[in-house]
Every structure is written in C-alpha cells, then in structure tokens.
Design a protein that fits this description.
This is NERD domain-containing protein. The protein is of the alpha+beta class. It is built from 7 helices and 18 strands. About 25% of the residues lie in helices and about 35% in strands.
C-alpha cells in the first residue's frame, strides 16, 4: 500500500526567526550583509551604521533600524530579515508560511508577523524628524526605506513583489550596485544645493554623519555559550563604571572543575574577574584598561533584553563580555 504524506497546518504569532534554524542552508546574518555591502559598493565604514535606536517625537526608542547607509543619492534605512518560506500580506499583519518535511509528513507552519514595511517606514519618518530636531534639514524624498530578505529560500507573493521597498536575496547585488551610480552623480554635484541637484550635498552628508555618531545603539551581552543578547545594561552591584568612558567589560572565570576544587581546598571561593576597557580607538597594544575587579560567580548582572518588559538577571559566571553603546 502506498503511503501518502499528511499535511498539518497550524498558525502561531511569534517571531519568525524561531523556525529559521531548521533549514539546512545557512542564511547570512547582519554582519555578513554589512561586509558584503562594503565589499561590493566601496562605501566607507563611517557611512554605514548598524542597529541605531532612532528616537521618535516623544524621545523614546524601543525599536532600532538594522542598517543606515549614507550615500550621495540619499539615506537608506534598511531592516534585514532572515526569513525562509512564502511571505504574504493579510490586512494589518503578514503571514510567513514555512513547510517542514519529516519522513512522510509535511508540516506547514504559518506565522503571523508584524508588517515590516510599515515598521521601517515609520522608523524612517522618525529618523527624518530626529534630523530636523537636531538642526539638519533633509528632504523626505532623500530617505529610502527598504526591507531586505537575506535567504534565497524566501519568496514574496505577487502583490508584495510589486513593492520596490522589498528586496529579495536575488536582487541584493543589483540594489547595492545602484549605490555606485549614485555616488558618481553625487561627486559631480556635491557642492550644489540638494534642492537643485536632487542629491545630498557635501555639507548635508557631514551634518548627518555628526548626528548619526551621537545616536545610541544597543548594549550587547556575549555569553560563554555563544549566544548574544542586545538590550540595555542596567548595572551590577559590585561594578561601578562611567558609561561615557567605558567601552567593554570582559568577564573571565576559572575554566576547569579541578581549578575550582583547588581554590576550595585552599579556603577560597572561586571568583569572576571583570576587566573594564576605555572607550575610543585602540592603541598599539589594544584598548586601554581602566580597572579590574573580582566578583562572586553567582553575582547577577541586570540587563533589559530588547523587546522585554522586565529586567533579566544574568549570572556573571555565564557572561563572556558586555559591550556598551554610546
């Protein structure tokens, strides 16, 4: 008797990244995309900004823009998505349909997700407003919101494919190459006012850079297991620091059970050493060390993970490092 595959469909409403790791193909991540942008376009490092928390009119910043790229033709505000499956729009939400094969069973998972195009357009408008409040006037037509899908296994339905703000993986290189043409045009009229040239003037670009340098990003916690958490470092009872001066906190622990046992035999409790490094460019010998302290391994670091409503308590013994945003 032939065996027929069964089809099970269920709908959930949570982050679509939860099903992405089940694919055998590796999807590029944000650092991979940034590296590709710079390699293909030749754009300078100081014109590419990541995970910027642009405040709105109320000066709150719950969401971030994944990438802001400053070019002669305008300011590109980009969110990147690692989604795999078929994406379609349904009223206020989008649906991501992912099929999973398991022997003779095909599971179809449909996830309800927030409209990413609406989200990036809102954040782009907030950025435009933030520049104006900072004394930099850039016409709205020089802002380009985009959503880029990094996985070759992501498909858009017919209606979404018509939207120029959405860029599939197969279209990424052509999209990035357009920056070159824009750059050459900008070189020819960089000293012309933007209302005449239709591009950012040299003075505008420098003013925008100055504002972007002051925009905050997320603090980043790297755990020994390899996981990374972005959010806001709230503090630790044994660590006193000046955020304006401190760039990174590195945590080191006793790595072996025998070392722990030896310390215990000597009457000492194992400790975690925390080294704090100065903010700013590296010297010949690396970053400058500000201070070193030791704390109990069960000490908790208070950290508000992005998207959460309450603070998390993270054991210092599990932390590799904390990078503080400006």
């Amino acid at each position: 008797m032939s065996q027929l595959g069964s089809l099970f469909t269920h709908i959930i409403s949570k982050s679509p990244e939860s099903v992405q790791d089940q694919s055998p193909h590796r999807t590029p991540k944000l650092p991979d995309f940034i590296q590709h942008v710079r390699k293909l376009t030749g754009i300078r490092k100081e014109d590419v900004y990541c995970n910027l928390r642009i405040p709105d009119k109320l000066q709150s910043a719950k969401d971030d823009i994944n990438v802001v790229i400053l070019t002669g033709q305008g300011i590109f505000c980009i969110d990147v998505k690692p989604w795999r499956g078929t994406v379609s729009a349904h009223n206020q939400n989008w649906h991501l349909q992912v099929k999973e094969e398991d022997q003779n069973v095909t599971n179809t998972c449909i996830e309800q997700i927030e409209d990413p195009l609406k989200a990036i357009m809102t954040k782009t408008a907030n950025f435009c407003g933030h520049l104006k409040r900072s004394g930099v006037s850039v016409h709205q037509s020089l802002f380009f919101p985009r959503v880029i899908f990094l996985s070759p296994d992501c498909e858009l339905d017919e209606e979404l494919r018509k939207k120029r703000e959405l860029v599939l993986q197969s279209q990424i290189d052509d999209f990035l190459r357009s920056f070159r043409a824009g750059y050459m045009a900008w070189i020819s009229d960089s000293l012309t006012p933007s209302w005449l040239s239709g591009h950012l003037s040299y003075r505008q670009m420098e003013s925008v850079r100055e504002v972007l340098r002051r925009v905050g990003t997320w603090d980043l916690v790297r755990l020994h297991c390899g996981e990374q958490l972005k959010g806001d470092f709230q503090g630790c009872q044994y660590i006193a620091l000046n955020r304006q001066e401190t760039d990174t906190l590195e945590f080191s622990r006793l790595k072996t059970l025998s070392a722990d046992s030896l310390w215990a035999l000597l009457g000492h409790a194992p400790q975690v050493t925390v080294k704090m490094y100065k903010r700013g460019p590296q010297g010949w010998l690396g970053k400058s060390l500000i201070a070193t302290t030791t704390i109990p391994p069960n000490t908790c670091v208070i950290f508000r993970i992005s998207g959460e409503e309450t603070d998390a308590k993270i054991s210092a013994n599990t932390i590799h490092s904390i990078t503080l945003s400006h």
